[in-house]
Amino acid sequence: MCGRFALSASPEAIAEYLNSAPPEPYAPRYNIAPTQPVLARTRQALTHLRWGLVPAWAKEPSIGNRMFNARSETVAEKPSFRNAFRRRRCLIPATGFYEWKKEGGRRQPWYCHLGGRLFCFAGIWELWQDADGNELRSCALLTAPAEGPMADIHDRMPVVIDDTLRGLWMDHHDENTARATACIGDRVRDFDLYPVSSRVNYAGNEGPELIRPLDVE
After folding, report:
1. 183 has catalytic annotation
2. Which listed residue (16, 73, 77, 99) is catalytic?
3. Which of 89, 121, 146, 195 has an alpha carbon 20 to 30 Å from 72's alpha carbon atom?
């Protein structure tokens, strides 16, 4: 699974990377957690979405609190995710993410990144409305079985779209999901990993110190 990530790049770098106007408002984040706003590139714009997908048919939005990840193996069939997967895919920029490794009776957080450069999670998003017509736009990140070094940390990992495949992932013209599934299969798998402070366990903690290697604290 993926339950925390970081986005520490400048707004100008994000805008250039995603071919969009700079995000506003925006501040670097090092401990983004479910139910919080996240930046996402939809087909329309770079915007903020609530992390935790609320299906259009949901009676109330709290269902999204536990639907922040969608398994890539079943996303095309699950009632909660399939419509978003077919018609509302998005790119969620990040500079790193956290996974927790079980070590005896404790869980040690590890920071996973690509040399500090920007990358994009495969995301899906949905539009929900309450009885008064108030709208909520929310999203989920896709995950896949862990491979490579990640398999020693956790059994799942987020799906990171290769930069060359971002256009295919966002192509919704054909409702056939074969192209999107191919993007998942060709996902980025190799990350740099190191343990970090357990301060990241608390979503209220923020700052660049959260991504410092544990042995230099």
Report:
1. no
2. 99
3. 195
